[in-house]
C-alpha cells in the first residue's frame, strides 16, 4: 500500500507542472483512477501493470503539454523499483 501512495504522490507532483487551468482536471482524474485501482481484480491485472499504466499515462500528459520527460524520473524510479 505504501508504494501505491508513493506512485499517487508522484502523479500529483507531476500535475503541479501542468498549466494552471488543467491541474484540477488531471488531479481529479488521477484520484478517480487510483480509487478504481483498488477494485481491480489482481488475478487479471498485476499491480506492476497498473504502475506501468500510471507511468505511461503520466508521460503522455507531459508530452501533451510540452513538459520534459525528465520531470518523471522520480516517478519512474518509484514505479519500477523492485
Automatic annotation (TrEMBL):
Q: Residue limits of the Complex 1 LYR protein domain?
A: 2-56
The entry sums up its family as follows: Belongs to the complex I LYR family. LYRM9 subfamily.
Q: Which PANTHER family match?
A: OS01G0342800 PROTEIN
The name under which this protein is listed is Complex 1 LYR protein domain-containing protein
Native source species: Arabis alpina
Upper classification of the organism: Eukaryota, Viridiplantae, Streptophyta, Embryophyta, Tracheophyta
Amino acid at each position: 500500500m505504501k508504494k501505491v501512495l508513493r506512485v499517487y504522490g508522484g502523479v500529483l507532483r507531476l500535475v503541479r507542472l501542468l498549466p494552471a487551468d488543467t491541474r484540477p482536471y488531471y488531479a481529479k482524474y488521477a484520484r478517480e483512477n487510483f480509487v478504481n485501482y483498488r477494485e481491480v481484480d489482481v488475478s487479471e491485472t498485476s499491480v506492476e501493470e497498473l504502475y506501468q499504466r500510471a507511468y505511461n499515462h503520466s508521460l503522455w500528459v507531459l508530452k501533451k503539454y510540452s513538459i520534459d520527460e525528465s520531470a518523471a524520473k522520480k516517478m519512474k524510479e518509484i514505479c519500477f523499483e523492485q
